[in-house]
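#struct-help
A.M.: can someone run this one for me? Single chain, 80 residues.
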Amino acid sequence: MGYEVLLISPHGKYVEEFKKEDLQWREFNLNRKGMNPLDEFLTILRLIILLSKEKPDITHFFTIKPVIYGSLAARFCQIP
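D.P.: on it. Structure tokens below:
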């Protein structure tokens, strides 16, 4: 359908599968249990920078922290 999907995740066991399927993937680490407001803000800022650079057509996030932070970053970048 012409969409560009960017997969963002920590390096893990599925990365090679993403590459085999010729999917775009960028490594992105975040502290899943972090609660420091400054660190959390910087994580959102890193996502905004990444999305601004990559300019994907669509984003999809799962697990609670990436959903919240990714949705905020995508909205800021005007990406559905």
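A.M.: thanks! The first strand starts at residue 6 and ends at 9.
D.P.: also worth noting: Strands lie at 6-9, 24-27.
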